[in-house]
Automatic annotation (TrEMBL):
Residues 67-122 form the Translation elongation factor P/YeiP central domain. Residues 130-185 form the Elongation factor P C-terminal domain. NCBIfam families: efp, PRK00529.1. It is found in: Cytoplasm. This is Elongation factor P. The gene is efp. CDD domains: S1_EF-P_repeat_2. Belongs to the elongation factor P family. PROSITE patterns: EFP (PS01275). Keywords: Cytoplasm, Elongation factor, Protein biosynthesis.
Amino acid sequence: MASTSDIRKGLCIRYNNDIYKIIEFLHVKPGKGPAFVRTKLRSVTSGKVLDNTFSAGHKIEDVRVETRSYQFLYAEGETYHFMNTDDYNQIALQEGALDTPDLLKEGEVVTILFNTEDAMPLSVDMPASVILEITYTEPGVKGNTATNATKPAKVETGAEINVPLFINEGDKIKVDTATSSYMERVKE
């Protein structure tokens, strides 16, 4: 058993007869009244997102998880195929287990969380950032902008990301997987 002080992003807990992964949390200590923790939980079975508030000191049942490195092989509809980098065993997961499937390119190494009780995969943790190539973007026009002007760009995985005007087709960019936002241009 854990308490609300143990809550952190990525923690898997058992709540309402289901297993949830904490995707956001905020400790709130109001001036008047007891402290509490506001959380955003995602069900690892259905993918539904739930907002919940736990009072300070509330006991939560955490799920023991084991992490393993897997390489993304290919997607087939809504099924994503991964290979264990240690023993080359393959598993297939549904799209709901991934946080940002549109940023996943073939060959990318991810961390998959497994429930230690029944060895079922719970969720896929992407690396903090990925490097993707721009496949299409409109040319940026200089002079008609204020500060921080952006334009939409399509990357090699099919995702659309807002990038600064100086980014062109063929450029490689670093993308933050948590927010699906542009971080920087990568020089080769």
